[in-house]
Each structure stands twice: as C-alpha cells, then as structure tokens.
Amino acid sequence: MYRFHTSLATRLMLGYGVLVTVSIILVSTVFYFGTIGILGQNIDAKIISISQNLTGAFQASRGEDLSTEINRQLSDRIDSDKEIFLVLSPAGRHLAGNLSTWPSTNTPLGQLVTRDVVRDGKAVSARLLISRLPNGELLFVGRDLSEQKSIRILVWRALAAGASISLLLTIAGAWFFRHQIETRIGEIRRTALEIEAGDLTRRIPILSNDEFGLLSLDINLMLDRIEHLMDSTRHVSNAIAHDLRTPLSRIRSKLDDALRHDMTVEALSAAAYAAIEGIDDLILVFEKLLQIAEAESGMRAKLFEPVDLNRIVLDMVDLYDATAEGRQVILKASLKDAVFAYGDRNLLASAVASLIDNAIKYAGAGATVEVSTIADAHSVSLVVRDDGPGIPTEELPRVTERFYRVDPSRSLPGNGLGLSIVSAIATLHAGKLMLENGVRGLIARITLLPAEVASH
C-alpha cells in the first residue's frame, strides 16, 4: 500500500478541492462587492444629488423655503422612512429635520461619512453629507443604513449558505474523483501484480472508452505482444537446443569414433573435415541470429539512401540463376520502370536472396519462380512468386518466427531463420513481409514506402 501523502489521486483531489474553494471565494467576493458596493455608490450619489438640490433651492429662495422643502420631502412618503435631514443655525440650534441627535459640528464638511445618529427617536447608522449654507447654517443630508445593513446580512447569509453547499459538493466530488482514480489504477496494479506472479494470461478489464479505457487497451495489447514474445522465446530456446544439440552430437560422435578405432591419418582427417563442416553450420546459425538482432536494433537505419529495387532483383536473379538451373527451376524477373525505396541496399538484397533461396528450395523441380517489383502511389513492393506446393494456411502466421519449421521432423535442409531475417529487414524499413498462398504456390511480398515518401 502507498502512503496517503504520496498518492497521486490524493494530490489531485486536494488540488481540485483547493481550486474550487478559491474559485468560490473569488466569485463570492465579486458578487458581494458587486451588490453591496453598487448599493452604497447609489446611496452616496442620491445623497449628493439631494444636497445639491437643497443648496440650490436655498440660494434661489434666499433660505425662506428650505425648511418647507425639507418638511415636504419628509412627508411625501417617498423614502420617508430612510431620509435624514437636519438644518442647524450658526449657533447650533435645531431649525428643521428629523434628527434629535447628530454628529459633532467638527465632522468634515463636504465629505460623505458614516455616523451613528438618533432619527425620529431611534438610534441608527447613517450615511451623511454636511454642507455649510451661505448664511452660516449647516445642512445635513443623509440616508438610514438599516436597510443596507439588512441587505448586507442577507447577502452574507446567502453567500455563506451557497459556499457551504458548494464546499460540501466539492468535498463529495473530490472524494468521488479520488475514488474513481484509485479504483481504475487499482485494477491496473492488481493485474500487474498477477502478471508479475506468473499469470501472463491476465488482462485489464476495459470498462469505458475514456483515457483509462484507452490506457488499459494499450496495456492489454502490450501484454498480448509480451505473451507472444515469451511463447516465441520458449520456442526459440527449444529450437536452439535441438538445432545445436544435433550437429554437436554428430561432431562429437565422429571425433569419438575416429579416436576409438583405427587412428589413421585418413580417418582423423575425415573426422576433422566433418567437424569443421558441422562447426561452419553452427557459425552460420549464429551469423543469422546476429543479422536478425542487427536488423531489429535499427542500427543500420542511419545508412539508408534511395535504392533501385529493379537493380537488386536483376542482381539476385543473376546470382541464383545457376542454382535454379541445377535444381531444374525456371527463375525469371518481371520489373516495373523506376521502382525506388529508401533503405539499405545490402539488407534488401539479402531479403530478396532469402526469398529466392526458399522458393527454389521448396518449390521443387519443374517449378517457376518469378521475382517482380510493383509500384503504386503509396507503396513499392518486392514480390517472389512460385508455383510449388505453398505453405499450409494454418502455418502462415508462424513461419516468420525464429527457428520455426513447417517440417516438424526437421529432416529438410535449413534452420528456420530465413523468413525471420526477411521479416526483421522489412520492419526496419517501415515495411512488412506478407505471405499468402496463390492459386498455385506461395506469394512472398515485401511492401515498402517509396523513396520520396520515406525520406521525408
């Protein structure tokens, strides 16, 4: 089990929770100042406007109608429960208005301030603007903030309730998020542990088409490939043991026989030549294995260049012409104009040589082997076709495995590495070896990218 603080799911859950919480705080802050702030600005603007209107009315009437205007506004039932007015004489005597207690006259003039006052016998918090009139009187214009306070409290409660519900949902969502991740990762880990214990048949269940489902599918494909490679390795190991044991046993038997019986120069010489021939066969097997490993490693890819496939076919047909004639096989070439691939000429020539050699060897006397090139807009191909017995259909998928032989008795010549080499060379060139039975015989096709496509 992993520790809580090292869990990726836990870190993602916490990050998700923190992100949502910060988002809630930011949204709540914007909402609060967007409501209470604007409400306060509207109150301030209204106070300033009323103060300016009353000051203008005072100047127009020379102060005679100011008290009348104030009393009218207090009795017009328009915001009468929130309006605050007060007129003080220069000596500080109450002349008009609805305040019984007011701020000190030392309060800054011409500035909006918030003070506690007594309005109509009730203590309230008020927003005030104090102005000095031309005759020395003080004009107080303000608004009762009780309603704004109630709205502020209501907004705070609404935000608190909304934030609480959001946090609860965030916690639930984060837990569900963590649970889902841990469940999906847990399935992968459990499968990995069972495979580690030796059960290579286990696969991750694919429950959806999301990222985890696609990852599970990719891992399952990888496991299929690994299982196939493990089976191939076991087969290769058995084949190597058989193919090496037989010639080594034969070499040892001949040397032992030469030493136990008449130890003449001729007998010893014959035994030595036989041993050298057997060792050469073993060296050939190892050289082919090294050739496959080199092709699969991709080391030769840096030497790639445009290669004329027609030239390779003509050279290989010319090379094997005598061999084909000796086995009573007709070998011919059929070429298209200007067929170029991007690759290693020697490797491609080796692949074609292996296919021609197999075709001549297994097609039988009287057969025809045709080597051709094919080109279209998207690919070029090297094709070796014969009219021999072909390969059983059920064996086609396995003949490119190392040391795999269609002949289980291994009585026919060969070591089962030729097609493995061809397949590795095709893969190195971003191509593919395809084998299929025709109407008569086998069709072996190496499909490659055209030189102008592969070089880019």
Automatic annotation (TrEMBL):
E.C. code: 2.7.13.3
Cellular compartments annotated: Membrane
Stated name of the protein: histidine kinase
Single GO molecular function: phosphorelay sensor kinase activity
Signal peptide boundaries: none
Record keywords: Kinase, Membrane, Phosphoprotein, Transferase, Transmembrane, Transmembrane helix, Two-component regulatory system
Record keyword Glycosyltransferase present: no
Gene Ontology CC terms: plasma membrane
Residue ranges crossing the lipid bilayer per the database entry: 12-39, 154-177
Sequence ranges assigned to domain Histidine kinase in this UniProt record: 239-452
PROSITE patterns (alphabetical): HAMP (PS50885), HIS_KIN (PS50109)
Major location category of this protein: membrane
Residue span(s) of domain HAMP: 179-231
